[in-house]
């Protein structure tokens, strides 16, 4: 998968940007507040997911304009494709001339992996950040996962409303049965998808971690809902039991406190929790390994190498890690933002763009 050209009109401070990126390395440099992350974000919007910075359309549109328009020509699934996303109160996507019902229609056509300083905190952040990492990656690779996930969230919202209604009035367990059955049915599918993915992700990330750290520690990750040797029916049974067990406390807290929306991805170094025992440098290497493994997995599962977006991370990593990343991503299209391109970055074959006050200019 490669971006051939990309334009952003009235997307944040990018009033009228058009670029023709190189098929490999693209460096975007400039001072703070010039539009580097905005450009990365406008490329990410083509995945059809929410921005990694906001869920609010209004923030994405230039202050002086009623709407933002992003257009990308890209090569994937063996052909050239064109996507146009108009953002106003809603988002309207046209893919290859066909108006789609939702930007989610990009899933299966456009692949990307984004990496920002927030990603470097994956280990230290709360479980919701790690679930998001899983959910976005899995939705991109397995479109059906996104469908099941959104159904699950809908049923969960309904069950939570029911808890709020019945919580005050006393409780009849019969009320909950239809919602619980649906949560278990969808939840066990989510768990199966996640555990299968995590098993493969762990292997890839472990190899990468080993290369970066010269094999001193063993990195692994696992899901905190143990499914080892369990059949699908047994997973459902286990989930059902957890839901029943947590019902009393759910009624007190008026919130469903068990299920995949509460699960965590546990990261370990030599079998010890990296969140508790890892040094800051080790934790960053864990996060880096996970993200690079995600890029590898996306390519293995979909057959398309994702476009890799590295926002502001290079300067936070030492030269050894930077060199490793550049070598690792050598066959992919990469966009790297930085304040001042280092000699290491400049030594690579690629294009360089300068961002100044919302204008992106290609340098010679
Ligand atoms: N909706 C918007 N309309 C116009 N400008 C915006 C909007 N949202 C953010 N900005 C501006 O974009 C700039 C930040 O751009 P960003 O890409 O994050 O900078 P950097 O180059 O440091 O990555 C800031 O000057 C901010 O005021
Ligand atoms: Mg930035």
Instruction: Tell me the radius of gyration.
Output: 22 Å
Report the helical percentage: 40-55%
Helix and strand composition category: alpha/beta
SSE string: EEEHHEEEEEHHHHEHHEEHHEHEHEE
Query: Hetero groups bound?
Result: adenosine-5'-diphosphate, magnesium ion
Biggest sheet architecture: 6 strands, antiparallel
Number of strands: 15
Q: So what's the overall shape?
A: globular
- Can you name the CATH architecture of the largest domain? Up-down Bundle
Count of DSSP helices?
12
CATH level 3 topology of the largest domain? Glutathione S-transferase Yfyf (Class Pi), Chain A, domain 2
Task: Output the CATH class name of the largest domain.
Answer: Mainly Alpha
Q: Strands across the major sheet, in which order?
A: 2-1-4-5-6-7
Strand content: 15-25%
End-to-end distance, in Å? 25 Å
CATH superfamily of the largest domain: RecF/RecN/SMC, N-terminal domain
> What's the number of structural domains?
2
Which stretches of 5+ consecutive residues score pLDDT under 50? none
Calculate the mean pLDDT score and round it. 93
